[in-house]
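From the shared-data thread, chain only:
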Amino acid sequence: MGLTMMFITHDLTTASYMCDRIAVMYQGEIVEIGTTQEVINYPSHPYTRALVSVVTDLNHFIDNRERIILDGEVDATMEKKGCIFVNRCPFKEEHCEHHSPDFIQKEENHFVACSCLDKVPAGLPKEQIFDKKPVS
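Structure, as tokens:
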């Protein structure tokens, strides 16, 4: 049919039914992009994992919130150096404060902007994502 549509939503469930590809954004920057199957079933960026965990099991998210995403103010008006997710990331390291991550190719059509992927248990199915504690 040759149709391209941009569908903007916070509802990953609806996006998974409507889209072939998903780009997850945080503060206006893409942090993960790939096929819907890869992003939803194998989320790699900590923010994507938090979004998927809410959809997958809200009670689990509430019980494990501090391991999934840190509380924090989001000030989009401040220009930042470094990773845009650093203030809320449970896996952050010192270099995240000063260096913006490049995209890392996870699969043929799956890319993630995160310098700490070695700290995040990668490649696990969504049911197993939060079984491991973040490295402090």
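The two ends are 49 Å apart (CA to CA).
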